[in-house]
Amino acid sequence: MLKVPEHQVAGHIASDGKLGPLVDDQGRFFKPLQGDSRGEHEAKFYESFTSNKMVPDHIHRYFPVYHGTQLVEASDGSGKLLHLVLDDVVSGYSNPSVMDVKIGSRTWYPDVSEGYFKKCIKKDRETTTVSLGFRVSGFKIFDHQESSFWRAEKKLVLGYNADGARLALRKFVSSNSPADSNSTPPNCAFASEVYGGPNGILVQLLELKEWFETQTLYHFNSCSILMTYENESILMKGGDDDVQAARAQVKLVDFAHVLDGSGVIDHNFLGGLCSFIKFIKDILQSVDKRDETETSPLENGN
Amino acid sequence: MLKVPEHQVAGHIASDGKLGPLVDDQGRFFKPLQGDSRGEHEAKFYESFTSNKMVPDHIHRYFPVYHGTQLVEASDGSGKLLHLVLDDVVSGYSNPSVMDVKIGSRTWYPDVSEGYFKKCIKKDRETTTVSLGFRVSGFKIFDHQESSFWRAEKKLVLGYNADGARLALRKFVSSNSPADSNSTPPNCAFASEVYGGPNGILVQLLELKEWFETQTLYHFNSCSILMTYENESILMKGGDDDVQAARAQVKLVDFAHVLDGSGVIDHNFLGGLCSFIKFIKDILQSVDKRDETETSPLENGN
User: Which UniProt keywords apply (chains A, B) (predicted)?
Assistant: First the structure.
């Protein structure tokens, strides 16, 4: 039985009879192949990437596992349609907080049609894509006070400036009620466990960055970083094995516009990734500073 | 006595009564302040940068030293005009080979006028700015066979694709006649001394890269890296002190479009710089491989 994914935060969403991805209860994610060759292009990328021996193993794990294509009943009721079959990257999480961040200072690329170029660059300039080299596309957080998910409004997310993006990245790792953040600043209670630490987001982003500094295989145009962490487990933790409690995870998704690198690094993705990394580092630094300030009076015996 | 600089390879050139930079015989470079506030903007940048204690000393040395502004006779005969007074970065070289590389995958930036945006993005798409994250703006090489300077034609330089840019970067460090490179491939005779080595271009670029990964002070829009080396000294070298013979030098120039970083890294410059670094590394690697192949028969006793 296929159903609409509960934790999708961006892209086409299969609800109200529209075409979108589906999931099964075995941890598989079914993404419909779009008619305009983009789907086919994405399938080709997965075929190439999955078998590409030039991609190191530690990099393969940042991509959803690909299981080929399959004809399944489309979510819009139009009958059987070819779908990409992927591992559902949030399957196995109880209450995942998820954020989709589109990386790069442009979503268009050389040799696109004028129509596509104009559509992309308009949105790139209206969002933080040009100014920050990335844009938040959507996110949801498990709200502990309400014991339910809070979802950022798409319209607001796409209207972020630099401060808005920064606030969203703080909110994403906070335990105080996300709906109240206009009056209460996000407390970043989970920042050091989710962004920091030996298995945190930052370490994973830095590993990706290292690869992007030399890889000339692919250009990941209009591709997103999907960050996930297990929110509930952080609150319920205890004992010695806290380290992986947050299960912070970075995955790259959306490859409908990937091109051959042709011997040139993906400077567009790399530049944006470095900018994004700086935002994450800044949050970790601000939390470290706060912790120092809070503990120093005790250490001084006051 | 001010005169037209001999070694300028890009930008407005003061010849035939046009407005352009001038040099004196004391190693000073005089750059006229352009009327449309760009010159003033560049002067402001130099004032800010020169006194900015947040910029480390080892980074300051990648920028021309600034000596304020001065009224001097303009090159176009229009009378006295305010000029930036800078150190002439090629003064002291006998036969400098010089290349100007504009860094970044765009030369426009947020909040420019539509006219300026359109002008820039057209040129960015026509050149390698979008595809490579940098474009060669001009270069000259000391031609040993002719004992004179060879200058790349501006029109050809601006028409480079990825292969053209790669060839130019190889040609720039070759000893065979640059004019013949269509028939004779560049030999990259100086690559390991100019691009490689402890004082070479690559080491300097990597130092700049490290700073750009964290600096959020300035965004260097439409700024160039100027590479210079002393060509003659490489041929005339001998003895033990060869290491600095090439006097390979990296300088950043052209700051008429620098903006405040406002807490965000210059991902546009950084991405382009990383791409440029990869090109330089590739050339060094190809030369290393060739050298291995050439020496291995001897080592094997053949």
Answer: ATP-binding, Kinase, Nucleotide-binding, Transferase
CATH number belonging to domain B96-290: 3.30.470.160
Closest CA in chain B for residue A126: B110
Dist CA B72 CA B2 (whole Å): 9
**Residue ranges of the domains in chain A?**
22-87, 96-289
Architecture of domain A96-289: 2-Layer Sandwich (3.30)
DSSP for A83-98, please give it. EEEEE-TTTT-SSEEE
Q: What are phi and psi of B57, to 5 degrees?
A: -55, -40
Q: Quick one: A235 exposed, middle or buried, by C-beta within 10 A (0-12, 13-18, 19+)?
A: middle
Of the candidates B116, B136, B137, B133, which has an alpha carbon nearest to the alpha carbon of residue B267? B133
Question: Are residues B216 and A278, on separate chains, in Cβ contact within 8 Å?
Answer: yes
* ipTM reported for the complex, 2 dp: 0.91
Nearest to A271 among B110, B216, B270 (CB): B270
CA-CA distance, A231 to A245, in Å (whole number)?
Answer: 9
Count of all residues that appear for chain B in the document: 302
DSSP structural state of residue B3:
B
Among chain B, residues having any CB pair with chain A shorter than 8 Å are 105-106, 109-110, 121, 125, 130-133, 162, 213-214, 216, 262-265, 267-268, 270-272, 274-275, 278, 282
> Of the candidates A109, A264, A275, which has its C-beta nearest B265's C-beta?
A275
Q: Residue B81: CB partners within 8 Å, gap ≥ 6?
A: B19, B32, B33, B71, B72, B73, B74
Residue with tokens 């487990």: A233
pLDDT value at residue B298: 47
What six digits make up the tokens of B114? Answer: 């539509």
3-state secondary structure of B291: helix
Q: What is the DSSP letter of B269?
A: H
Q: List Cα–Cα distances, A11 to A95, A154, A224, A276, in angstroms.
A: 20, 10, 10, 20
Round to whole Å and give the CA distance between A231 and A149.
Answer: 11
Contact indicator for B7, B140 with CB cutoff of 8 Å: yes
pLDDT at A50: 96
Mean pLDDT by 10 residues, chain B (302 residues): 87 82 94 85 96 96 97 91 95 93 97 95 97 97 86 93 96 85 84 94 98 98 97 61 73 96 97 98 93 61 40
User: Distance (Å, rounded) from C-alpha A226 to C-alpha A189?
Assistant: 20
Long-range (24+ apart) CB contacts under 8 A made by B169-176 are B169/B99, B169/B136, B169/B279, B169/B280, B169/B283, B170/B283, B171/B141, B172/B97, B172/B99, B172/B139, B172/B141, B172/B227, B173/B229, B173/B283, B174/B141, B175/B144, B175/B235, B176/B145
